[in-house]
């Protein structure tokens, strides 16, 4: 391995990613000493006589190099710290963010991507130039040791200066050359004696003097000047040069002339141009490959979109087919019972009508339950979420489960040692547990064990693929039944998918649970092994500091059947008729309109209104907006919302204000009458 012995340290400023360690590794492997600086400010503090070179990326100087100007300005006349700037492939098409960078430091620009050999070659070249500066430094320091030492140092300095391939000169305030090294003979093709003692305009000629004069005047004013110039050989060959004017001040601090340093940078310019051309070629290759990949990705996305559309249509077909099958059965029970009752009434046969009424009612209730399951699956049901203690809630359903599952199923409950609180609709949660228990019972036809377990779980990132990291209260329902293969588990949440025989299940139980958990902000997992059983786990975010339950106001008894005035707003004609009949039979006075436009004039009048009953999903203004308008003129008016489906009414606690209540369609007469009585009671 080749190593470089040098007294200079290479400072690296590369703030992004692993650029700095990667550069340091390349240089350290060559035996170079390196130091990584976090920023230009840290670099400025480290710029001393021991600095060999600086490698800096374009990202480090993107916001300017003001931090470097002062320490660089303080450099002694012999010092010209080399900087190697690693630019991004596109940067040659736009100027640097800090144009003063090129005037403030001696810089070699290289384009990335850059090979290790090119980087190492540039750094070594900079260090060799810096080592020559160190020689000049050492010789200049020796000048202060006395006259004899001064004379010896001058001779040695002359030897060193003459040996360097850099033009070195000193020009006084009268523009006379006071010193010039041997390099002037090669650059000017004339003896050094023809340069020393002559004025700058005579040496350069009038044309060059005209272009250099403003820069020389700035140098004589004390400003450090750095610029590049095209200085071709006499035979026309290309030669690029970097020229520096470094002011020298006298004991009083006044510039008495300036030093001239001229370096041949043709090689670095050619290297930069070559790297830029390579970068352009690479950019063209990348653009071509990118276009090809974009085309492939577009084709893949189109294919995936077509597949998703096909799967969506299959799911919709399965969903609508299942709904149609179940609803046709239910409608048959309803319509046939009504037809039989109508026929018997026309015949005057009133006996036995209760049997057909019960059949129609049972079919209607099955339809209502199916609708609720569909709303749960679609996450559009109206939830009455509250903070509940899960240990107590799960314990409260044990009696119901025992009566439902039968004697062949043993029920075991293991609860958490600490209270578990979550925010959910307790009725819907109990329904979900009952569905899971019934599924477990059907998976254990010869009997078995059902275990309910509550626990406090911390889920780490990516620990459970389908559950975000967080703190959860978990209720797990396990059975010792037949279990399910993976292909069945994958489809378990699909609507109307069931492994039960025809007529034994709708296939909406697990879909309903999935929708309820999603709507409640929770998650669900299913673990099943054929022949060993199944565990369904419900994950709900833990509530640590539940708000204290507000005291429910005691509803005072109200006088029913006294003609209280109720305004009903319902767009469905049949529902309007039925609600009106119910209210009048209960002893109320009902005024019925079909939409908000018809209700607003009544609400704005002086007419007495004891209760507003409105559907949520009205045409035009919805029921919630109508209630807001009503409260502007009647702030204490009770409101009872009826809802079959209302996206904005999914969370009751957020939807309802004081004095508002909600009842879900379809509803039974006793539930509706109780809701009306309770709503009116809040105003008494």
Q: Could you list some keywords that capture this structure?
A:
684 residues, alpha/beta, five-stranded parallel β-sheet, five-stranded antiparallel β-sheet, 21 helices, 20% strand, elongated
Summarize the structure.
By secondary structure, this protein is α/β, with parallel strands linked by helices. It has 21 helices and 22 strands.
Strand order of the largest sheet: 2-1-3-4-5
Distance between the termini: 97 Å
**Quick check: average pLDDT?**
81
Count of helical segments?
21
Query: What low-confidence regions span 5 or more consecutive residues with pLDDT below 50?
Result: 376-381, 548-559, 646-650
What's the quaternary structure here? single chain
Overall outline: elongated
Helix content: 40-55%
- How many strands, which pairing sense, and closed or not: the largest β-sheet? 5 strands, parallel
Provide an overview of this structure:
With 684 residues, the protein is α/β, with parallel strands linked by helices. It is 44% helix and 20% strand. It is built from 21 helices and 22 strands. The chain has a five-stranded parallel sheet with strand order 2-1-3-4-5, with helices on both faces. Helix 4 (101-104) links the parallel strand 4 (82-87) and strand 5. Helix 2 packs parallel to helix 3 and helix 5 packs antiparallel against helix 6. The longest helix has 82 residues, at 266-347. The protein is elongated. The termini are far apart. The relative contact order is 0.05. Mean pLDDT is 81; it is low at 376-381, 548-559 and 646-650.
């Amino acid at each position: 391995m080749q190593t470089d012995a040098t007294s200079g340290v290479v400072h690296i400023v590369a703030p992004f990613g692993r650029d700095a360690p990667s550069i340091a590794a390349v240089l350290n492997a060559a035996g170079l000493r390196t130091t990584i600086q976090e920023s230009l400010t840290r670099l400025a503090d480290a710029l001393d006589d021991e600095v060999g070179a600086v490698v800096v990326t374009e990202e480090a100087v993107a916001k300017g190099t003001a931090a470097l100007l002062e320490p660089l300005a303080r450099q002694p006349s012999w010092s010209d710290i080399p900087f190697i700037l690693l630019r991004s492939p596109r940067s040659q098409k736009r100027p640097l963010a800090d144009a003063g960078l090129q005037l403030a430091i001696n810089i070699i620009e290289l384009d990335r991507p850059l090979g290790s050999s090119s980087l190492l070659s540039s750094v070594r070249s900079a260090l060799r130039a810096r080592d020559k500066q160190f020689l000049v430094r050492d010789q200049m320091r020796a000048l202060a040791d006395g006259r004899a030492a001064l004379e010896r140092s001058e001779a040695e300095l002359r030897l060193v200066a003459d040996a360097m391939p850099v033009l070195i000169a000193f020009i006084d305030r009268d523009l006379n050359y006071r010193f010039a090294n041997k390099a002037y003979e090669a650059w000017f093709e004339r003896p050094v004696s023809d340069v020393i003692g002559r004025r700058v305009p005579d040496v350069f000629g009038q044309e060059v003097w005209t272009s250099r004069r403003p820069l020389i005047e700035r140098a004589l004013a004390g400003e450090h000047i750095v610029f590049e110039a095209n200085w071709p050989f006499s035979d026309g060959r290309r030669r690029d040069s970097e020229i520096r004017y470094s002011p020298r001040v006298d004991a009083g601090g006044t510039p008495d002339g300036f030093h001239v340093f001229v370096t041949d940078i043709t090689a670095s310019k050619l290297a930069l141009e070559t790297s830029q051309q390579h970068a352009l070629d690479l950019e063209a290759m990348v653009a071509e490959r990118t276009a090809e990949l974009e085309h492939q990705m577009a084709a893949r996305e189109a294919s995936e979109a077509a597949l998703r559309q096909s799967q969506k249509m299959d799911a919709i077909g399965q969903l609508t087919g299942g709904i149609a099958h179940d609803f046709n059965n239910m409608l048959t029970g309803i319509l046939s019972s009504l037809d039989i009752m109508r026929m018997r009434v026309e015949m005057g046969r009133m006996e036995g009508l209760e049997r057909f009424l019960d059949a129609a009612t049972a079919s209607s209730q099955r339809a209502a339950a199916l609708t609720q399951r569909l709303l749960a699956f679609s996450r559009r049901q109206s939830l009455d979420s509250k903070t509940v203690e899960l240990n107590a809630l799960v314990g409260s359903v044990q009696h119901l489960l025992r009566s439902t599952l039968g004697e062949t199923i043993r029920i075991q409950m293991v609860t958490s040692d600490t209270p578990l609180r979550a925010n959910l609709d307790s009725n819907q949660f109990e329904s979900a547990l009952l569905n899971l228990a019934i599924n477990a019972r059907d998976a254990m036809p010869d009997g078995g064990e059902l275990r309910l377990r509550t626990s406090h779980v911390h889920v780490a990132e990516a620990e459970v693929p389908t559950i975000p990291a967080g703190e959860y209260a978990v209720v797990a329902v396990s059975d010792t039944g037949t279990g399910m293969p993976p292909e069945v588990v994958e489809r378990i949440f699909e609507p109307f998918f069931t492994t039960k025989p025809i007529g034994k299940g709708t296939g909406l139980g697990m879909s309903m649970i999935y929708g309820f958990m999603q709507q409640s902000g929770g998650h669900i997992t299913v673990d099943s092994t054929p022949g060993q059983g199944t565990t369904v786990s419900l994950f709900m975010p833990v509530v640590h500091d539940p708000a204290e339950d507000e005291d429910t106001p005691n509803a005072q008894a109200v006088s029913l059947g006294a003609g209280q005035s109720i305004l009903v707003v319902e767009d469905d004609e049949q529902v309007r008729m039925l609600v009106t009949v119910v209210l009048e039979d209960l002893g109320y006075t009902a005024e019925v309109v079909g939409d908000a436009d018809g209700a607003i004039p009544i609400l704005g009048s002086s007419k007495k209104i004891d209760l507003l009953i409105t559907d949520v999903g009205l045409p035009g203004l919805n029921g919630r907006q109508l209630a807001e308008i009503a409260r502007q003129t009647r702030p204490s008016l009770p409101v009872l919302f009826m809802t079959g489906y209302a996206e904005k009414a999914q969370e009751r606690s957020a939807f309802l204000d004081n004095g508002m209540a909600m009842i879900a369609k379809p509803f039974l007469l006793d539930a509706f009458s109780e809701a009306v009585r309770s709503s009116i009671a809040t105003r008494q």
